[in-house]
Write a structure and sequence with these properties.
The protein is an alpha+beta fold and 149 residues long. The chain folds into two domains: 31 residues; 86 residues, Immunoglobulin-like (Sandwich). 24% of the residues lie in helices and 37% in strands. The chain contains two helices and six strands. The protein has a three-stranded antiparallel sheet with strand order 1-2-5, with no helix packed on it. Strands 4-3-6 form a three-stranded antiparallel sheet, with no helix packed on it. It starts with 5 loop residues before the first helix and ends in a 10-residue tail after the last strand.
């Protein structure tokens, strides 16, 4: 009897494991699970994007060597309190001033078309600014503030 006979190996180590295969029900279950996960992900992306405020720079005015104003449109949900960071830049695009502007919750009829309102932010600068832009906007959690116009 040789030492590599199949019967001797089977007796010593047991039967080799059979490769498991998914049947039609297994594939159907995986397909349903993948579809559900995809639908949940899409719903999460759509609702997260809809809640985020958006802004558009409209213009700026250099008032003096120490002050600049920035005009911007803000689109948000009426009940949200939103803070926007406004930066003043010099001719080398270095930040020479920074301000945060909080826009409070307003009645829906006070907002323009699509929930858009126009705001002006005043920014103090360390030296002459050549432009002022909105850097970012975010929704505050549970904050109560007054409207800035």
């Amino acid at each position: 009897m040789s030492t590599d006979s199949p019967a001797l190996l089977r007796d010593r180590y047991g039967r080799p494991a059979r490769a498991r295969r998914l049947g039609p029900r297994g594939w159907l279950g995986l397909l349903v699970l993948a579809t559900l996960l995809t639908a949940v992900f899409i719903a999460w992306v759509v609702t997260a994007r809809g809640a985020a405020p958006t802004f558009k720079d409209v213009g700026f005015q250099v008032v003096s060597e120490a002050r600049v104003t920035a005009d911007f449109d803000l689109t948000k949900r009426p009940g949200d309190v939103v803070t926007c960071a406004v930066s003043a830049l010099n001719k080398e695009y270095a930040v020479v001033g920074w301000a945060e502007v909080t826009v409070g919750a307003v009645a829906e009829e006070q907002l323009g078309q699509g929930g858009t309102s126009t705001h002006r932010a005043s920014v103090r600068t360390t030296n002459l600014a050549t432009t002022a832009v909105v850097d970012s906007c975010w929704v505050e959690d549970g904050a109560a503030a007054t409207d800035v116009s």
